[in-house]
């Protein structure tokens, strides 16, 4: 059995992409199915094949997905929708209220220990998550797959390669009391997240990474997304993709508002697809200032864009979508444009690594059009 732990909608999407890319396991009495349709073929959801599975479903696998549910409503709503899609693909989904009270983490871990022991491979989406790190201390030498949870995958691979402790790129280097208490857990998890003679580590990613020896990289081409959704209907205008760089303390709120207003005016954008972590107050200010229609997606943007309607040009700041949308929207004629982050937009409290990391995110994106930061 493969056991996946997810904490965000994007992680669950990429678990489905990973499962789709794996060799099929035939059902009893049913001939083995191919690994999936050709990426350029568009298989519509709702059609079924042998065994009642969706037509074109590669992943006839013994996979259990455990959703370690977050507390914010937007993430929970998107995860509910993604869980429905996972069940439609034939996978078992276990919804775990992992944070609803002080005793929830301990109770969750107790309940998950039998599943961990029975699993052959553990699939995770966020190697920086303290929750996941704690679970990994119980996983022993089981094989491990890390699927994308955004640009953090790039930082995880580089930190493992350098033998560093795992720290999110937008965090400053100092360690608080909580980090010191959890340091032993993080140290064990870091060993679990590194390859060894008894443990295979795979990274399933759409990000440009240079793995250290022993880590296998499998390309995420978003074949499942393209086979289930679209192609989308295109609108004449441009759409703008929001980011949580303000919420993570990287970009100044006023500078961000100015940049969004300038981009919308210059490119004729009419809609703003909000990141699930963006605050209501910030979005209200953006709508008043720019006149943009604020859209709160009920699924990850890759699926929303593929389902359409979507603008012929999609504008974004440096983020995961400048790597994923060109793959999900391949062949549709949509232009993905990424706007650089000007140094003066960064907050004084931002991590010293922030500017360089964001430049790498933009500079390594393929099949995108780069536009300068508004003056």
Key phrases:
375 residues; alpha/beta; seven-stranded parallel sheet; six-stranded parallel sheet; 13 helices; 13 strands; globular
Q: Could you characterize the architecture of this molecule?
A:
The chain is of the alpha/beta class and 375 residues long. The protein has 13 helices and 13 strands. Helix 13 links the parallel strand 12 (335-339) and strand 13. The chain is globular, with a radius of gyration of 21 Å.
What is this structure, in a nutshell?
The protein is an alpha/beta fold and 375 residues long.
Helix content: 25-40%
The shape is globular
Portion of residues in beta strands equals 15-25%
Q: Tell me the span between the first and last alpha carbons.
A: 54 Å
**What does the average pLDDT come to?**
86
The major beta sheet can be summarized as: 7 strands, parallel
Order of helices and strands: EHEHEHEHEHHHEEHEHEHEHEHEHE
Weakly predicted, low-confidence segments: 32-59
Task: Figure out the total of helices.
Answer: 13
In spatial order, strands of the major sheet run 3-2-1-4-5-6-7
Radius of gyration: 21 Å
Total DSSP E strands: 13
Which structural class do the helices and strands define?
alpha/beta
SSE layout:
Layout: E1 2-6, H1 9-21, E2 63-68, H2 73-88, E3 92-96, H3 104-118, E4 121-124, H4 130-136, E5 143-147, H5 152-162, H6 177-181, H7 183-192, E6 201-205, E7 215-219, H8 223-228, E8 234-241, H9 253-267, E9 269-273, H10 280-290, E10 293-295, H11 301-307, E11 310-316, H12 321-328, E12 335-339, H13 354-363, E13 369-371
Parallel strand pairs: 1-2, 1-4, 2-3, 4-5, 5-6, 6-7, 8-9, 8-11, 9-10, 11-12, 12-13
Helix pairs in contact: 1-2, 4-7, 9-10, 11-12
């Amino acid at each position: 059995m493969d056991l996946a732990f997810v904490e965000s909608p994007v992680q669950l999407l990429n678990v489905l992409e990973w499962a789709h890319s794996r060799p099929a396991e035939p059902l009893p009495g049913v001939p083995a199915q191919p690994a999936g349709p050709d990426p350029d073929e568009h298989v519509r959801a709702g059609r079924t094949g042998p065994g009642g599975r969706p037509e074109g479903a590669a992943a006839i696998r013994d996979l259990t997905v455990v959703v370690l549910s977050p507390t914010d409503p937007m993430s929970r709503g998107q995860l509910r929708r993604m869980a429905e899609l996972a069940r439609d693909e034939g996978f078992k989904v276990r919804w775990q209220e992992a944070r609803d009270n002080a005793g929830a983490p301990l109770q969750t871990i107790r309940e998950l220990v039998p599943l961990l022991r029975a699993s052959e491979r553990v699939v995770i989406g966020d190697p920086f998550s303290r929750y996941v790190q704690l679970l990994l201390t119980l996983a022993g030498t089981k094989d491990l797959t890390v699927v994308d949870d955004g640009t953090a995958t790039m930082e995880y691979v580089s930190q493992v390669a350098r033998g560093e402790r795992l720290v999110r790129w937008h965090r400053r280097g100092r360690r608080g009391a909580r980090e010191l208490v959890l340091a032993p857990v993080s140290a064990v998890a870091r060993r679990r997240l590194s390859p060894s003679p008894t443990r295979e580590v795979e990274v399933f990613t759409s990000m440009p990474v240079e793995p250290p020896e022993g880590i296998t990289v499998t390309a995420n081409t978003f074949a499942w997304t393209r086979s289930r959704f679209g192609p989308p209907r295109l609108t004449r205008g441009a759409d703008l993709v929001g980011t949580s760089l303000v919420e993570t303390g990287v970009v100044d709120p006023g500078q961000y508002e100015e940049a969004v207003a300038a981009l919308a005016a210059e490119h004729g954008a009419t809609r703003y697809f909000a990141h699930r972590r963006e605050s209501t107050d910030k979005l209200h200010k953006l709508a008043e200032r720019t006149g943009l229609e604020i859209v709160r997606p009920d699924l990850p943007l890759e699926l929303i864009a593929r389902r359409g309607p979507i603008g012929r040009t999609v504008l974004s700041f440096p983020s995961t979508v400048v790597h994923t949308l060109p793959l999900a929207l391949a062949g549709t004629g949509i232009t993905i444009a990424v706007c650089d982050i000007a140094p003066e937009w960064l907050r004084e409290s931002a991590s010293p690594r922030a500017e360089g990391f964001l430049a790498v995110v933009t500079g390594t994106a393929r099949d995108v059009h780069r536009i300068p930061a508004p003056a």
